Amino acid sequence: MCWSESVAERYDAAIIGAGADGLAAAALLARAGLRVMVLERHGEPGGRLVTRQFHPGYFASPFAAAPIPDPLFWALDLARHGALLAPTAPAAALWPDRIVTSAPTPLLAEAERRRAAALAHARLPAPVPRWNPFARRVRAAWPAESWTHRALVEVLDGQEEGQAELLAACALEGRAADPLAAGSALHLLAPGGAGVWRGGLGGLGAALAASARAAGAELACGLEVSEIKCQSGRAASLTLADGTQIAARAIISTLDLKRTFLSLFAWSELPPPVVKQIGNFRIAGAGAYLLVALGAQPQAKNAPADLLRRPLQVMPDLRRMVEAHAAWRGGVLAEHLPLTLRFESSVDPGLAPIGAAVMTVTIGCVPHTLFDGVWTHEKRDLLTARALAAIEQVFPGLAASIVAVELIAPPDIEALLGATAGDLQGGEIAPDQMFAFRPGFARPGPYTPVEGLYLAGPSSAAAPLATCAAGAIAAEALIADLRAGRLK
Amino acid sequence: MSERYDAAVIGGGVSGLAAVSLLAKAGLRAVLLEQATTLSGPAGEPALRALDPRLVKELGLARHGLKFSSRDLALAVPRSGGQLTVLSRDRHATARSLAALSPVDVAAFAAFQREFATLARALRRTWWEGAPAAETAARLKPAQHDLLDRLTVTSAACFLAARFESDALKAALAFAAAACGFSPSEPGSALALLWSAAQEMCGLQGAVAVPRGGVGGLVAALSQAAEAAGATLRPGATVSRLTVADDRLAGVELAAGEQIAAPLILSTLSRRRTLEGLAPTARIGLGAAQALRRPSPRTGCATLVFGLNRLPDFGGGLANKRVVIAERLETYEIAYTAARLGQMPREPVLELILPPPQAAAEQLSSRLLLSVSVWPVPLGDAFDRDALARTVGAMIERHIPGFAAASCDVLPPLAAAPSVARLLSGAAERIETPIPGLLLCGDAAEPADAISGRAARQAARLAVLLHRKGGAR
Prior knowledge:
The complex is a heterodimer.
Chain A lengths: L2 H6 L2 E6 L3 H12 L4 E5 L11 E4 L2 E3 L9 H6 L9 E2 L5 E3 L4 E3 L6 H13 L31 H4 L7 H9 L24 E2 L3 H15 L2 E4 L3 E7 L2 E7 L4 E9 L3 H8 L7 H9 L7 E7 L17 E3 L3 H12 L9 E4 L1 H4 L9 E7 L13 H18 L7 E7 L1 H8 L35 E3 L13 H15 L5
Parallel strand pairs in A: 1-2, 1-12, 2-9, 6-14, 12-18
Antiparallel strand pairs in A: 3-4, 5-8, 6-7, 10-11, 11-12, 13-16, 13-17, 14-15, 15-16
Helix pairs in contact in A: 2-7, 2-14
Chain B lengths: L2 E2 L2 E4 L3 H12 L4 E5 L18 H6 L9 E3 L3 E5 L5 E4 L3 H9 L3 H25 L5 H6 L3 H10 L4 H8 L3 H13 L10 H8 L2 E2 L2 E2 L4 E2 L2 H16 L2 E4 L3 E7 L2 E7 L4 E3 L2 E4 L3 H8 L7 H7 L6 E10 L12 E5 L3 H12 L8 E5 L3 H8 L3 E11 L6 H15 L5 E6 L3 E2 L4 H4 L3 H5 L6 E3 L13 H19 L1
Parallel strand pairs in B: 1-13, 2-3, 2-14, 3-10, 5-16, 14-21
Antiparallel strand pairs in B: 4-9, 5-6, 7-8, 11-12, 12-13, 15-18, 15-19, 15-20, 16-17, 17-18
């Protein structure tokens, strides 16, 4: 490749990964008039925002996405590109003999969560605040600051019968945490799924891609980035798996911290303390997903009419959550796994054949690596059987109507989405890995020790709080640096 | 006719005695009111890790009979494989011991000790003098400030796991967090490691010392000092409530009905017990009353006192050491999870203080008492004495063969309610109460649960100031 060509190939920004963050960043950068290239490993953009036909006629979006902050939703013009959020009813907890529905009044947590999401989208350079007990209180406390050292059960204390369990189960959906241990309250800030998008999550992914394309960003799918090359200490170009070089003034990575630094860099490129620090960042997957095609609508006894429109927690119990977490820590599959059911087809009937239903089961506390070795077929069958047996207790007769089942275990998530250890959170939700301690570099925000490289993936500070926010923050930082002449 | 004093101290432990002696030394007529009929230290607690050296000096405790049978106990961690790691003040011996575990840890441990010793010394402004943490932190170098910031949110387990390789070293160091009442996997428990590094015994930073006669020996020396200073000690006096007259604190009323007049009252009870149990309700104020309502702790520490008829074989150099039995960091986590759920942990973490051979031989004429602290245990109904005695006996037997206890006394468990906020609070927040003239000076007014006498010293100082101000008016 001759020199003049490589200059012609140079982009203002190259984005690794066309997930929610990558697409949002691409749209915002392209609108600012930059030449943007998005590189996606898979054949289609969307990342975890996918809806897949897992059985003829049945569509499911296994991975839930946190809500998109309103200002970002409108700034990206997603409504015009076809993203439509169908209202879902609040969550409910299901036992064989009773149903507890979530309190209609918003919990304290909801307000804090909104504040956190708004903050996640706050303009730079105001950094995401650091938990700093020493600073004189000139600025307001960050949302839920007092939760840093509190347990989930303490925050939920004083709720009515069944409510605390329900809310704890909602907060820990698809995760592993001990609700009795201090620090677990932070899970309330990092919400799981909210609402059902028309056409499934894939509908949202398609709208984001359309928004990025309309703004003028280039989307290149089916291209895997294998290396980030540095030149005189700054990120200068990307090497693709086929050897092609793509030069860019700045690079945004939407991969998680470990994947970005430990797999895309030659180790000699990074200072050893940084490598050690990244190695110590705790990432551990805990969520598995079960896609179930049902031939008929499931029935529960004495259920309210909108039951199937709600996210359903199956028999939540604090003691079982603690035991499941302890088992997960030991690499064991717990006897009673936390389960969340979603019947997406009852909100969006287009996802299943007429009269049939799709059930997505989110399973928490599933270890990525089992203590006795890899995930074999027997272990996958055991996990599926345990989950379905528990569901059978609250929906008697459901097993008879099952048409097809597909399990997505943590190693599958790692393979599908490139998430280290299959952790969709991109790092344990703990006080020392949240806000300015996430990902924990000297400079908070999307900046990394490598100049010209911005981190916008699940390991960045804003990612657990809201979808797309990390991408937007990285894009803003990049634009500000370009304008200030810091990127050559 | 009631007795009149300048100040009254409620509770006769180490803190109460220290406070009353300091008050009397400053020329106040001070009285100590203790519920029990004799003055004694907390039962079974043989070692001191945080006693304020200035208190020892000011009260001349050495003159009054305080002697140490061991000034600096080395920390020994036996492992189930029979391997023994000893962390002592001798750097080279420690390095040799650690080299057997992991060569990387030798350098990492030396660096850790240096870094912590410096930062811990800087933090003494808060932990010794009682200055607000914000002021102390503002004086730190940026790198130190950063480390401190990180410690306040990091769990000891994660912090140690990131620094060291070997399980034995990590488990040994994590014990400092447990000894402060934290679960080592709790966020902020890394700060407890720093707190214990900031302590000093017998002039040695981070040392653990054993006074002759246990904490009882310290209490005896303190009572002598108090009497020499002219304080009145009244064991067997139960305080039933505080009395108020003309909008001011007037004194206390004893359970027997007797009134003791004192415009200044220092309580060694916890804030909650003092304000809710003794103070007139209307005086506390709604905000303060609400702040008292904290969720009750789920776990605590139990102390077992084993009586031995003959000296067991402590094996390769366990004598005169502080022995921590914890295999790895996960041991703590599993035990704390069980205790939080209200189950007796199957493998708790133990700390044994083993006496030096000559002291043991002296004591053995009667019966050698060996006290073992056990972390964690569930509180309330779930606490099972017999099961605990069996578990602990079996665990010790594994490491000290022939450990045949003639008797085992299980003392009631103590609740642990540590918090990062408490560790970072200034003395004013811990000592002062909404009622003018009522000060706290006990364990609960310390930054972390420990016998240090620092809260007593600060409260006594404040009381003397208040007394002088009141006198001038």
